[in-house]
Amino acid sequence: QKEVEQNSGPLSVPEGAIASLNCTYSDRGSQSFFWYRQYSGKSPELIMFIYSNGDKEDGRFTAQLNKASQYVSLLIRDSQPSDSATYLCAVNESGGSYIPTFGRGTSLIVHP
Amino acid sequence: SAVISQKPSRDICQRGTSLTIQCQVDSQVTMMFWYRQQPGQSLTLIATANQGSEATYESGFVIDKFPISRPNLTFSTLTVSNMSPEDSSIYLCSVSGAGKHQETQYFGPGTRLLVL
User: Fold this and answer.
1) What is the C-alpha separation between A100 and A34, in angstroms, rounded?
2) Cα–Cα distance, A27 to A7 (Å, whole number)
């Protein structure tokens, strides 16, 4: 059974700090990886996706992928209180099934 | 990306009744899905809505309880039948196969259901 593991948190960081969110997955055949942000009472919103080993940067967000270690992370630089939300990691296997496995999410709190 | 709308956005229903939730996408998509998310919990996939054929249900979900239709590539409905308070949840439609990155999944705004 495919599993995606995240620490439920909450992860609390001060405003301006770097928030580091981590995710591990069990299926070595996984090929695509996604991070979603979900504010309380709202639906998940895609932040980033990453397919290749290494780092991918988009503004204050950096996704890091290490397929050998089956590990993907999301770094948020210069964290803002508006970043406070639950962050969901999703992992998709190869073959175009288009059905990702979601982690349970990590709650992030950025305090002023 | 795809723009997804859901109706209704919320509803309060009596036990034993049924509610049909609609999902409309602004472009043709390959895949449409229905999820449930209970307060404080992660997403649970109910089924994949297949165009022109019966939906594919995940373990623990059955067609009699959650009938799904997908008459075309932009529209799907989920019915929650014979509701009980345990069905109170947020129901989310999602799609993939839109635009350049086919595997990326996008979510609708959700339908908040409370069953009394």
Assistant:
1) 9
2) 18
Residue A9 DSSP code: -
Residues of chain B with pLDDT under 50: none
B57 touches chain A (CB under 8 A): no
- Cβ contact (<8 Å) for B110 and A105? no
Q: H-helix or E-strand containing B116? A: none
By DSSP bridging, strand B44-49 and strand B31-37 are antiparallel
Phi then psi dihedrals of residue B37, to 5 deg: -140, 115
A92 part of contact set with chain B, CB < 8 Å = yes
How many whole angstroms separate alpha carbon A102 and alpha carbon A34? 9
Is the pLDDT at A31 greater than 70? The verdict is yes
What local confidence, expressed as pLDDT, does residue A95 receive?
60
- Tell me how many degrees the CA angle B37-B60-B56 measures, rounded to the nearest 5: 90
- 3-state class (DSSP) for residue A39: coil
- Bond before A44 cis per omega within 30 degrees: no
Q: Which residue of B has its CA nearest to A4?
A: B42
